[in-house]
Amino acid sequence: MATVNPADEARHVPAGERLWNESYYLDWFAPDGSSGGYVRIGYVPGLDAVWYWACFVEPGQPLVTVIDHDVALPAALSSMELRHEGLWADHHIPEPLERMSCSLESFAVSLDDPAEAYHGARGDRIAFGLELDWETDRAAYGWPPEITPRYEIPCRVHGEVIVGDRHIEVDGWGQRDHSWGAARDWWALGWCWSAGRLSDGTRWHTAGAFAEGVDAGVAYRLDPDSSQFVETNDLAVRSELGREGFADWATLSFADLELTVTPLAWSPVLLTHPDGRESRFPRAMASVVAADGRTGFCWIEFNQPPI
Q1: What pLDDT, on the 0 to 100 scale, is given for residue 16?
Q2: pLDDT tens digits for range 106-144
Q3: In the chain, N or C terminus with fewer CB closer than 10 Å?
């Protein structure tokens, strides 16, 4: 396993590729799967923009989502504060590899059908904000450096989310990750990513399904009360796609875990290349059942480039 350098928590100097990308993902879910959400801060300096996504989901309820691909880059590389029409957000890492905080004040759109995110995202405008902290649950996992500079951190998440006149207390679980240093061509490569927690405290992360019929990827299992990641490149991902390309279910097999994943609430994003190509990016909070009967929750995503 690659050692994670605390200095890499900061933003990095971009290279010259048009699609060079640096991103921070932060997600969470309630211990009972009753609500959750995620934030993604995606720096794309070759397009002179930040792609900012944030959402709040509850099974059976409208999706509350912010999707803005025209946020101005911060003036300084040392800053993660963002300002745009109807959106202010700031992000801090006061304790590298131990804690990251996120603040958001925005107007979001409420979608009765999450698939509307692919079709203009027309819905009711609603105030949406959050003040959340992601605190590391034991250790940070560094991806194999020959693949891409990236690390994943299982977390405990706490704070508050505001949706309209509702104030929702968060005391749950989640994951954060940070990647940089390469072009990210959403329109050429598909994948399936996941990260979650079983009820006994087992944590996991997977990234695979990069090519049809190839059972390989990056994955770990973090056992209860352990800070040692059990990592593997043997990963089998199977899924059944339904309406609008949303998966009805998925199975993940890796590191002596056999997980059946059932999406509970979707928060998709439509990604449009400057040349007009479109990639669909459905992300879902999901319930999980292990082959031995343990249960849990996770976030799972599928990048679906044009065929």
Answers
A1: 87
A2: 999 999 999 999 999 999 999 999 999 999 999 999 999
A3: C
Residue 269: pLDDT above 80? Answer: yes
pLDDT value of position 307 = 79
Mean pLDDT of 56-65: 98
Q: Tell me, what's the pLDDT at 295?
A: 98
At a CB cut-off of 8 Å and minimum separation 6, what does 76 contact? none
Do 106 and 66 contact (CB within 8 A), yes or no?
yes
Nearby residues of 288 by Cβ (< 8 Å), 6 or more positions away? 196, 198, 259, 260, 261, 262, 295, 296, 297, 298
pLDDT score for 146: 87
Cα dihedral sign, 10-175-232-138 = positive
Number of residues that this document lists for the chain: 307
Give the whole-angstrom CA distance, residue 18 versus residue 160. Answer: 36
DSSP state of 137: S
Contact 261, 194 (CB under 8 A): yes
Report the C-alpha gap between 213 and 257 in whole angstroms.
20
